[in-house]
Amino acid sequence: MGIPFSPLILKQYSLFSQHLKSNYVEYNFREVEAKWRAHWASNKTFKTEIDSAKPKSYVLDMFPYPSGAGLHVGHPLGYIASDIFARYKRLKGFNVLHPMGYDSFGLPAEQYAIQTGQHPAITTKDNINRYREQMDKIGFSFDWDREVRTSDPSYYKWTQWIFIQLFNSWYNPATNKAEKIETLIAQIEIEGKYQWENLSEKEKSDLLLEHRLAFLSETMVNWCPTLGTVLANDEVKDGVSERGGHPVERKKMLQWSLRITAYAERLLNDLNGIDWTESIKEAQRNWIGKSTGSSLKFKVQGSNLDLEVFTTRPDTIFGVSFLVIAPEHEHIAALTSAHQKSAVDAYVEKAKNRSERERMADVKSVTGVFTGSYVVHPFTGKDIPVWIGDYVLAGYGTGAVMAVAGHDSRDYAFAKTFQLPIMPVVEGGNIEEEAYEAKQGKMINSDFLNGLEVKDAMKKIIAVIEEKSLGKGKTNYRLRDAVFGRQRYWGEPIPVYYKDGIPMVVDASELPLILPEVDKYLPTLNGEPPLARAADWKYHGKYEYEYSTMPGWAGSSWYFLRYMDPHNDKELVSKEAVEYWKNIDLYIGGSEHATGHLLYVRFWTKFLYDRGYIPVNEPAQKLINQGMIQGRSNFVYRIKPLFSCGSDESVVLPLIFVSMPIHDRIQNRNIDDLEKRNLEKVSLDAFIRLNPTAENVNLMRLETTALHVDVNIVENDVLDIEKFKASREEYKNAEFIVEDEKYICGAEVEKMSKSKYNVVSPDSIVEKHGADCLRLYEMFLGPLELSKPWNTNSISGTSNFIRRLWRLYHDADGNFAVSDEAPNKEEFKALHKIIKKVQEDIEGFSFNTSVSSFMIAVNELTALKCNKSAILADLAVLISPYAPFVAEELWEKLGNTTSITFAKFPEFKAEYLVESAFSYPISFNGKTRFFHEFDLSLSKEDVEKEVMAMEQTQKYLEGKAPKKVIVVPGKIVNIVL
RNA sequence: GCCUUGGUGGUGGAAUGGUAGACACGCAGGACUUAAAAUCCUGUAGUAGCAAUACUGUGCGGGUUCAAGUCCCGCCCGAGGUACCA
To answer: Is the CB of A14 under 7 A from strand B?
Structure first.
């Protein structure tokens, strides 16, 4: 008596028996990965200590800000690359420092705190836990015992300590380095410019503040009223805050700043000694913006006032036809004539209220006003009118320019607008058309400079200017001092208090200055920063603290040092640790930090070097920028028919989706009548079904609209209809019109974001395909530095690869089976080819090509049916940086008892690749026609002789004698006809 | 505008001046299976041809070379960054 089968059960049964028939056990990545994840964690496999017997390598990722959204597949790209590099270096016998931490002070946690009242520390901790969980899944070889968090008091104690050192230092131009402030006092005393002893405390303080590297000064800042804080230039994009997009205005404020400008020249010069990408170096060079020229004084007509300008083109001095000063220029009042006063006042007022954004929006329009004053040309004695124009910036140079309309396009536009004279002084241009800006040609209309080349004229005029004390040769930098105070809560408190209005730093022994609790994370009613809310928060119970906190980049400007010695509470880093680890050998991160973080970290490193705390003056020898991973959105297309019907009552529209090709045809109007009528009928029927009471229903027009669909329910652009229906209540009864039984989605590359439903998390990939697969796939996508859209479509390629790799070590039944036999020549060749390739690729950061070569190697060894342990053990080691889990498992099965982390990278032996013969492409006029194998020991002449004797050659020669025959041994034969 | 990049099949991408399109995805066909999935095999730049083969092909136009995706000159287009910086 059997159990009666229903067809469905029968189907399931046969499936089951099928499975039993073949008892092959596939690679179980879930089990294996979980096993090694736990093993590495409990054995602290990646814990690193100083080991002077080994060479060191410091491999670092830019640490993340732990945001609430978690990691998406774009984030780990750089981490995977650096992890491969770190694991490779270990195999090569290096002692590798490969840590990770969190840049955990920042705006989003604070914004969230303002909205919800939850302390930013809690939000931050939750986010960090989530990040850690996600990173752990991917199998990074970080030494987590060295984790740092910038918001941790034991960390920011040292950020504050560095601030104190900056405060207590000045930049000595004579020694060209930062020194203790005491050496400045000594110098002041020697020079006797001031009677130091006789100065009041306030005077001393003010005097020193002009030299301290951390100083308080009145600066123009980017003030964001909505956020209640000051923003750095690089936090402002298009006149609005980078985070949140709130309007930003210019405002004068007493602020803490860091004197980064003192380091401008060194920051520029030392770029030559580091191996960073040209684009980052160039961005930093532009940001520092060095320009050489001359300052020059113009006497104001009828006054003792001098107007000083900075120009890079002193050679064009005889072409000056007017001067322009910034609307904020300090001498505007003195320069304005009574007659022009109302016009000037109106203009200055308007310019002041024009936000950065507006000024930027109309770069093309030229505005300005005449002051009514004139200056005297220092060489011709002619009167030169002084104008005000907002294209001149108060913050750069002297806030005044000498306008040479013939040779500067902005001056030219200004002159054209206000009908001011334009005089050419360098041959070569046509001033009727445009300004001639090239620094090339002979000087004309220039008195004693006439006939000189621009370059020579430049030298001569600077000499004359200096001789006559009209000014002097000068170098200007675009780089501004870095504003260091933020009116925010979630940051490091600046360790300063005020005694009788004099800023004093907290004693280093009293650090850390703990961030106090506040009732609200908002500014106070009278506009003071949130820290002013802290109850009884006073230095020694008496003196008011500074209420600003440090900017986001403070903690990240030195974290690479802390990883070397993260638990030291006596020093920021011990001498021993920093002498051993020195600086970063490989730094990987996004190029968006080109002029922010990467400039500040160089600045702090140089400062700490100057003051003798560390032995290196650059943070990173080698820098790689990983590309952005963009999102790839999928779309479904809903039919949106327009109906007309008799009844007025609200109608229910049907939910019908058409596959992408159908949508395309509707959009492009190349849909045939039959299909169109069918679609119309389906829509109409559905409508009537849903609205049975509607009368006189008519279809007006057939249209489709695209809707984003979650990429996680789409595979290879085919929609999982069941999941889609389940995803939202209103989709439950959706209908689909498909072709070939597949609903094809549209796709488009966009930024990866929640609102576009195109976020792919690494967790989902790890869950579905495994961490090894994710690692390989991210590398396989393309060159590390290139931006590319994330597309999960071809992930099956790497997934298959791992399974094929696994099968190499297993027999047909899935039992581990390797042999101790000696490998043959082909097997050695396949192995050594991959040893060479992987080594070259990792050292050249070409990770995508090494994944391909692994595939080739596994394909070759599979074809050779190679199961020799001598080959397979080395293969496991080679692959282990890329796919550590499966490599570790195979390594153990091969009988090893220690982690593959401690294995040795196989040594490449060229002799295995030596070939005795080569199949030459025989080409005619560069076109390959056929192949022929020749022994490589054959001489060029012999090869030529043999080729010429061949029947095929004669065919292509068509009876003609060749003009020339080129034989490149081991490469090609080319016959020129 | 300037700076930095990049432009190669249906797609992601390979190519020290020396066989363009490695590797992978997708697609097509086949094997196994009652069937499907998985797996394996074959083909896959375009045009013409049953085929051998021929021609055309690395954004465009020139050049250097026996030989150019690669080097040089001049353009076009995309991406990222940056800007009244005197």
So the answer is: yes
Q: A310 beta carbon < 7 A from strand B? A: yes
Nucleic strand B near CB of residue A254 (< 7 Å): no
Distance A573 CA to B56 C1' (A): 66
**pLDDT tens digits, residue range A610-661?**
999 999 999 999 999 988 888 877 888 888 766 666 555 667 778 888 887 7
Copy the structure tokens of residue A677.
């009528």
Considering only residues 375-394 of chain A, list those whose CB is below 7 Å from strand B: 390-393
Biggest distance spanned by C-alpha atoms of chain A: 124
Among A167, A184, A188, A166, CA closest to A175: A184
Q: How far apart are the C-alpha atoms of A431 and A423, rounded to whole Å?
A: 8
- Residue A145's closest CA among A47, A61, A57, A63? A47
Nucleotide B53 C1' to residue A575 CA (A): 74
A239 touches strand B (CB under 7 A): no
Written as six digits, the tokens of A632 are: 């790839």
Chain B positions within 7 A of any protein Cβ atom are: 3-5, 11-16, 18-20, 22-27, 34-37, 39-40, 54-55, 66-68, 79-86
Q: What is the pLDDT of residue A3?
A: 31
Look up the pTM and report it: 0.87
Smallest Cα–Cα separation from A242: which of A221, A227, A258, A220? A227
In this structure, are residues A806 and A648 in contact, taking their beta carbons and an 8 Å threshold?
no
What does the pLDDT look like over A38-53, one tens digit per residue?
Answer: 999 999 999 999 999 9
Integer Cα distance of A851 and A860 in angstroms: 14
- Bridge partners of A819? A868
Tokens encoding A895: 């009988």
Q: Identify the residue whose tokens are 């976020």.
A: A759
d(CA A104, CA A121): 9
3-state secondary structure of A651: coil
Q: Is the CB of A356 under 7 A from strand B?
A: no
Q: How confident is the model over A423-448, as pLDDT tens digits?
A: 888 887 777 777 888 787 888 888 89
- What are φ and ψ of residue A219, in 5° steps? -130, 155
CA of A944 to C1' of B72 (A): 32
Give residue numbers, 863 to 902 of A, with CB < 7 Å from strand B. Answer: none
- Pair A483, A221: CB distance under 8 Å: yes
